[in-house]
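Handout, section B. The chain below has 397 residues.
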Amino acid sequence: MSSPGASVGEVAIIGAGLGGLTAALALQRQGWRVRVYEQAPVLGEVGAGLSLSAGAGRGLASLGIGSAVLDASLPVPDIAFVHYRTGERLAGALTQDTPPDRGFDTARHIHRADLHALLLAAVLAQDPAALSTGKRLERLDESGSHVVAHFADGEACEADLLIGADGARSAVRRALFDDTAPQFAGQIAYRCLIPRERAALFMGGVNAMVSIGAARIFNRYLIRKGAVVNVVGIVQSDVWPQEGWNTPATVAEFAQAFDGFHPDVLGLISCAPTRDLIKWGLFVRPPIATWSHGRVVLLGDAAHPILPFLGLGAALAIEDGIVLARALTEISSFDGAFAAFERARIQRVETVRTQSIRQGEIIQASDPDRVGVGNSPSQNTTLFDYDPCTAPLHVQP
């Protein structure tokens, strides 16, 4: 069948997350026939707010959805880091001012479901048959000319190449690269969405704030044109006894986890919905030697899950999708394209991975009165300026 470069072929993508859909849309726009296979039986409104780096935003704009993303998102303000108990400013600005909207010259906040819906709509506009749901991968078979994915429902698909974009518990990674289980990172996260009008009494006149304390952080900011407050609290813990990723939580246990925090934090927690309050354990995996095997390649969390303390997880997946599509379109062999993709991305991903760990160590320090947020990785603008549309592909090994 076809090879990349001058001619195109068929791609199977396992996983309909942000990275998978970004790769799908980028490849469709270059003439590839793309089929996306998602394990979930239905794609619903999942997740909460996320940060979209300026570079990732420009990458999405290159795929024709920039205006829609801008309309669905807000520019990230100067986020205030404050002492967990007193609310005293440690870094950033205590302000309710809306920053000038400079498009994708700055990072943006957006609901994950809104961004996912925009990407999915764009993929289906290119090809209404591009998505299949309820497809749980069971095994992969490779030959010299194609790869076959076998699903639990008895169906199979054959493609020129296959992209594993199925998250940190990736079945593709487990099948061909690394069958060790993800490891609990000693962190439990709580999340919820609160209508701004309900939360207003506890916002303290500040739109975006991170309250930092020993082994705990509480982050909240606005999404959906300022109508909704996105709330995430992360707590260090020795155990995560749950099996699932998204486990229902109670307001009482959320409040207990942040006992001793400022009254505004506890007030926001008291506003959390009794339904749709979720907790999940954070899991990581060690780096693997390569992200490709024959005609199969990994991207996003399937290749390199990271901790969320810099808010760059979604950006990395989007960046991967765009850079991989560029490599497959510009380089005349699968091996060469995969190698160029990995060489172009490995240092970027490793830097973000290690700096995310460091950021977590700083903002969960044992003595928040002495925390050095001003010199933390979150203040390093180079981490957030990476542009997947212009990053060099032909990096030497």
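Note. The mean pLDDT is 91. Compare this with the example in section A.
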